[in-house]
């Protein structure tokens, strides 16, 4: 075993990591009008299988012990010197949204792989085993809730319920899709052994780090998330002959809710945000009052009480609009997660490590949901953020500079080493 000082000087191969990001990005690649290169690998589609196969191949090349569990989470482990020690886990997801980028999630997984390869190359053994994981359906773009794989992994959702979830696009059953792509694995889920610690490297997906010219974010926690699907039923009628006062216009109500939740967020201020990301009208014709609208509302806050307040205002708004316009509004919760605070020791370790490596750092909450918030239920957890150019994510123009990718991966390496050497003599 090396002494601690020489381990401090260990660095990842940033070019090798970049090449893997590029290679994985070619799977399900989509091209933008200005030559942007994005990715569409919705969970449990053929493209997801192809991406999984590529990453699993790399895991195998590194001689890692690979397990695939009953919800399709893949965990690859490098043994430690102490057979009784729990693994230090790194990871993220490789599924993307329909018009996603090449970094979201992929960086955490391939960054973890790069850590493994660096240790292997330098012949370094650690006391704790080290695992790199990718979790099923983090994005929730096809199957809801999001972060489904990691939620089941920590026992937050029953396996049977998860397998019965239906796809938003084609109504396919999650369990069937998992089997179809060959990733319904034999390992039980939830996991029997909690990791020693979990750390996830991820792009920020927002503009703060770039705006403040900071390289590494030490993530303090994750905002609470509330997703609701609304089905508004009114009455279709002729757009020319129906007087305004006699309308039951589902399209109008959808628009009023869109404007209304934005006003609620603006009025509350702080970290409160509100978004209507999906809205479909029926019959969706120029001269027909919409009979039906289906839409989603996404509310987030770092504070649970404030999030509940936003939800209450949103529900009151719906009730009022339903009454005024004479429509019915059916509400269905798609996801609801309370805000999560990460482990203080882990947050400080990320910050200290980044500073030691000469990077500017900032403690910040995450605006997006991540697998890390699920792992935080069972072990000390934190995340490492690197800047997103123009703050863009869930967008084919998503980009993070190679130098920032390397910086983040080196922080990941050193944090993993610190945790994996704990208790070593
Ligand atoms: Zn992600």
| Radius of gyration, in angstroms, nearest whole number | 23 Å
Which band does the percent of strand residues land in? Answer: 15-25%
Bound molecules: zinc ion
CATH architecture of the largest domain: 3-Layer(aba) Sandwich
Series of H and E elements: HHEEHEEEHEHHHEHEEHEEEHEEHEHEH
Return the CATH topology of the largest domain: Aminopeptidase
Mean of all residue-level pLDDT scores = 96
Question: Which key features would you list for this structure?
Answer:
elongated; Aminopeptidase; 13 helices; nine-stranded mixed β-sheet; alpha+beta; Alpha-Beta Plaits
How would you describe this protein?
With 425 residues, this protein is of the alpha+beta class. The chain has two domains: 4-223 and 340-420, 3-Layer(aba) Sandwich (Aminopeptidase), CATH 3.40.630; 226-337, 2-Layer Sandwich (Alpha-Beta Plaits), CATH 3.30.70. 35% of the residues lie in helices and 21% in strands. The chain has 13 helices and 16 strands. The chain has helices at residues 4-8, 14-25, 46-61, 106-121, 148-153, 159-163, 174-180, 208-211, 250-268, 304-325, 344-356, 371-375, 402-420; strands at residues 29-31, 37-39, 65-68, 74-78, 88-92, 130-134, 197-203, 216-222, 224-233, 273-275, 279-282, 292-301, 328-337, 340-341, 361-366, 381-386. Strands 3, 4, 5, 6, 7, 8, 14, 15 and 16 form a nine-stranded mixed β-sheet that branches. Strands 9, 10, 11, 12 and 13 form a five-stranded antiparallel β-sheet that branches. Strands 1-2 form a two-stranded antiparallel sheet. Strand 1 (29-31) and strand 2 (37-39) form a beta hairpin. It is elongated, with a radius of gyration of 23 Å. Residues 93, 104-105, 138, 202, 370 line the site of zinc ion.
